[in-house]
Design a protein that fits this description.
The chain has 8 helices and 18 strands. With about 350 residues, the protein is an alpha+beta fold. It has 2 domains: about 160 residues, D-amino Acid Aminotransferase, Chain A, domain 1 (2-Layer Sandwich); about 170 residues, D-amino Acid Aminotransferase, Chain A, domain 2. The strands form 2 sheets. Strands 1, 2, 3, 4, 5, 6, 7, 8 and 18 form a 9-stranded mixed sheet that branches. Strands 9, 10, 11, 12, 13, 14, 15, 16 and 17 form a 9-stranded mixed sheet that branches. β16 and β17 form a beta hairpin.
Length: about 350
């Protein structure tokens, strides 16, 4: 693993940190330090370091501000009952980050650099890892272009960073509460040949107006169909979508270049297969999904992602009506998969897949 120089200067007192960790929310407060690595076309990756968390200084002409040349990741560190801290499938995040950077014309960061940047930050900010029920330290690696020019071309200078945020439930509240999904008919998240499979800010920026539409209609998340035929379910604003039939099949849209391959999605597919459920990755029309919910052949719908883990869906809605999933409460398969996954992440179940790695 590469060496990181450490500049340890906590900016928060123990009392301030304890107050934050009592109710951390999601992604709103940040730990004391961050990992940084620099890259230029001439020198490659240099200056690996962990430093105090602080604002960046950017030239107003920095490429990221004008052409959105950036990519990011999301993963978590989990505290176990014995005081150890572990990460989940971070190697998969590292590989996806490389694919995203390749698509965005950014330099690829090695897996060793990615993992070391995460581990060194968690080691330095160990006291920021919360220990409450289903709490974790959310980690956000990201890379952005900083060359100061207005020509439309790849940057020759970038910054890679990792910041950390103690986090609780993504949607707030307590317990496992179903969310309502609004399927937009007017906006697309990504198109074939575009950046939909990459994890980059532009995809999320494209979803914001649709998310506003969802919230205006009383829904927590927005769902998207394909940008060509406007028929096939793709993903939500920040999660992958699953449906469970009453005869034991688990359905999810097959991956295309306009769907992000979720790290949690991959784990759920594996766990569902091991639970002797029949997994179907295929194209699913929104009409098929609605019809299955309405006639009862689809008894559960859930969404999954790093931030929200596995979240049951209570209803799907659009401008033509509402489709209540089952009786509106979390389903048996959804809860079983969720419990299996979180028990593994928090060390309550043996990790037979090699998905967990001890940091501390």
């Amino acid at each position: 693993m590469p060496d990181f120089t450490l500049t340890v200067e906590p900016r928060s007192s123990a009392a301030q940190r304890a107050e934050i960790l009592t109710s951390p929310g999601f992604g709103a407060r940040f730990s004391d330090h961050m990992s940084l690595i620099d890259w230029t076309a001439d020198t490659g990756w240099t200056n690996h370091r962990v430093v105090p968390y602080a604002p960046f200084t950017l030239d107003p002409a920095s490429a990221v501000l004008h052409y959105a040349q950036e990519a990011f990741e999301g993963l978590k560190a989990y505290a176990h009952a014995d005081g150890s801290v572990w990460r989940f499938r971070a190697e998969v995040n590292a590989e996806r980050f490389q694919r995203s950077c390749r698509r965005l014309g950014l330099p690829e960061l090695s897996t060793d650099d990615f993992l070391a940047s995460v581990d060194r930050l968690v080691e330095v900010d160990r006291d920021w890892v919360p220990t409450g029920a289903e709490q974790s330290l959310y980690l956000r690696p990201f890379m952005f272009a900083r060359s100061p020019f207005l020509a439309v071309k790849p940057s020759t200078s970038v910054t890679y960073a990792v910041i950390a945020s103690p986090s609780g439930a993504y949607f707030g509240g307590t317990g496992v509460q179903p969310v309502d999904i609004w399927f937009t008919r007017d906006f697309s998240r990504a198109a074939p040949g575009g950046t939909g499979f990459a994890k980059c800010g532009g995809n999320y920026a494209a979803s914001m107006i649709a998310q506003q539409e969802a919230e205006a209609n009383g829904c927590s998340q927005v769902g998207f169909v394909d940008a060509v035929e406007h028929r096939y379910v793709e993903e939500l604003g920040g999660m992958n979508l699953f449906a469970v039939t009453t005869d034991g099949r688990v359905l999810t849209p097959a991956l295309t270049d306009s769907i992000l391959e979720g790290v949690t999605r991959g784990a759920i597919l594996r766990l569902a297969t091991e639970s002797r459920l029949t997994v179907e990755e295929r194209r699913i029309t929104l009409d098929e999904l609605y019809a299955g919910i309405d006639d009862g052949t689809i008894g559960e719908v859930f969404a999954c992602g790093t931030a929200a883990i596995v979240t049951p869906v209570g209803s799907l809605r659009d401008r033509d009506g509402v489709h209540i999933v089952g009786d509106g409460t979390p389903g048996r398969v959804t809860l079983s998969l969720r419990t299996t996954l979180t028990d593994l992440q928090y060390g309550l179940r043996a990790d037979t897949h090699g998905w967990m790695h001890r940091i501390i």
